[in-house]
Amino acid sequence: MFDLDFSPPEELGRPLWRSLLINLADRFAPERLAPLQLSSKPIDVILPAETIEVPWYRTVFTNIGDVISPERLPPLDLESRPVDVGELLADELNHPWWDSLLQNLRDRLAPEKFPPLQLTSQPVPGFGAESTLQILDWSDLIVGPKVFRADAPPPAAVAGVNPVASAAQAREAVPANPTLLAARMQLVRDIGRTSFRRKIWIALAAAEAVFLLVAIFKFQ
Predict the structure, then answer these.
(1) Residue that wins the pLDDT comparison between 89 and 35
(2) Half-sphere exposure of 25 (CA within 13 A, CB side)
(3) What does residue 72 show for φ and ψ, rounded to 5 degrees?
(4) DSSP state for residue 215 in the 8-state scheme
């Protein structure tokens, strides 16, 4: 185990005049370091921002070109050594049921022997409990009388009028606001334009898919 040091760096306790002299020395007489030796090869990486900024018609022709004549990449050179990670979860799920049954019986009758666990920290007692931790109910922790409030009376019983008639009178009394009517008409027009544009985009996507399928079957 490594000794972790969470104390602040020594530069924070450096006096002001000493920090000023060090900065001046680094400014007028910087340290001469050896040239950097790169052991890796540069890789041409396309950033996601550059791909998003490309117009849609260029991506259409790029996809068609990738389908007709895909780029030939060199073989992959692995510089790392493979590590045995054991059996993956997908491989375990593909086993038949009798294999899982035999494995469970083997683990039950002859379990694998592991080395003893080495603890570096001392156990902390849980609220002074020695063997078990007891959790109390909220009803035992809260002390006080139970208060039952009466239900609120319905609005019709308080007002003493018919709610259907009062709602109809309220609708008749409220005049139509021209601003709200104009906003409603504008919203309806925007929804209609949005649905029209969606149909156009769906038609273009369907045409592109048909063109790609025809190109695939034609140039094979």
Answers:
(1) 35
(2) 8
(3) -90, 115
(4) H
Residue 102 domain-assigned? no
DSSP structure string for 3-29: ----SPPGGGGS-HHHHHHHHHHHHHS
* Residue 110 in domain: no
Q: Is 17 left (phi over 0), alpha (psi -120 to 50) or beta?
A: alpha
Largest CA distance in the chain: 94
Domain count, the chain: 1
In a domain, 204, yes or no: yes
Segment (H or E) for 190: helix 178-218
Task: Supply the range of the domain harboring residue 212.
Answer: 176-220
Identify the DSSP state of 80: S
Which amino acid would we find at residue 180? Answer: L
Is 108 part of a structural domain of the chain? no
pTM beyond 0.70: no
